[in-house]
Amino acid sequence: MQFKHLLAALAMLVVIPAAAQQKPAQAPLLLPQMQLHDPFIVADKATKTYYLFTRNEAAMTGDRRLGTMVYSSKDLKHWTRPRIAFALPEGIWAKGGAWAPEVHPWKGKWYLFTTFHDEAATLPPEGNRKPYRRGTILAVADKVDGPYRVVRNAAPIAPKELMTLDGTLYVDAAGKPWLVYAHEWLQTTIGTIEAIPLDDRLAAAGRPYVLFRANEAGWAKGQRQPDGDSVWVTDGPQFHRTRTGTLLMLWSSYGERGYVQSIARSKSGKLEGPWEQLEPLVRRDSGHGMLFRAFDGRLMMVLHRPFTFALGKLYEMKDAGDRVEVIREATELDLEAYPTHPCIQPHTPSERKVDC
């Protein structure tokens, strides 16, 4: 009997590895089980919860409405099933999209920036290309996870005659807000990253201007079109101020072997730049990433890969003062997600954000 009691006491001292512990019943999903594209994570200090926002996928929520879904997690590994954080109301001008949702605090509220389009609302042609109405709209909520309601009847923030996407909020040193977005290659041939000043209501308060063009990056490659023309893509701007005050911008385009997560640096430390292009952070058909701080203080990056049928990928990052650098792939969190699927084929920009 004493031997049995000794064994029981020893068993109580054994530490079960975290990976072997039973996952929480309320957070049953791992990143390889989560459909997502253009992921955006908010680390909410008030609730010690990570919220991952992405376009609504009916296969995950059972809801076919255009909008934004949100996953949540306490540890960046185990995630809840997603729910709708925002659904586009009926009667709004948009007919498709719900791309690249981002959530930012502003004046005591939470604001959702997300991109919609209407292919039937054509804009003046650019050669053989036929641009159409596309732009980032605004929605607001009292809580980070919603529900969000449209602002100004979902009118795009940037001028409606511009074909734009992937809007993000930047607040300068004086506390002035700006919308920074990608101006679509369908309209510009060489895609640009542009900025437009906003007022306190996050409405446009001036004209946009160009920060840089995609072909200024030495690694970026023009994508050949059926008519023989070449175009350059800009996607997913997002900002980070380093420990030394350097202003960085994450953004994506296409390189030699697919989608690329890159980074640019403002020489002046201000939004107006000039901007210099650094070497990409991640290649391997990976991109549209963003940076956030984990609750343990680590700087992290999330992005999607591959481009089609994308899953989430996490990296631990280093703030190197004048840049950020990848320390390692956080495979203990994302399980080295890199799926293959019979529908995944080499793609051109005309197939962007379209599933087969």
TrEMBL record:
Pathway linked to the protein: Glycan metabolism; L-arabinan degradation
Signal sequence, start to end: 1-20
Positions bearing the site annotation: Important for catalytic activity, responsible for pKa modulation of the active site Glu and correct orientation of both the proton donor and substrate: D166
Keywords linked to the UniProt accession: Glycosidase, Hydrolase, Signal
A Gene Ontology biological process term: carbohydrate metabolic process
Pfam families registered for this protein in UniProt: Glyco_hydro_43 (PF04616)
Superkingdom of the source species: Bacteria
Molecular functions per Gene Ontology: hydrolase activity, hydrolyzing O-glycosyl compounds
Family per record: Belongs to the glycosyl hydrolase 43 family.
The protein, known as: Glycoside hydrolase
Provenance organism: Sphingomonas psychrotolerans
Lineage per the UniProt record: Bacteria, Pseudomonadati, Pseudomonadota, Alphaproteobacteria, Sphingomonadales
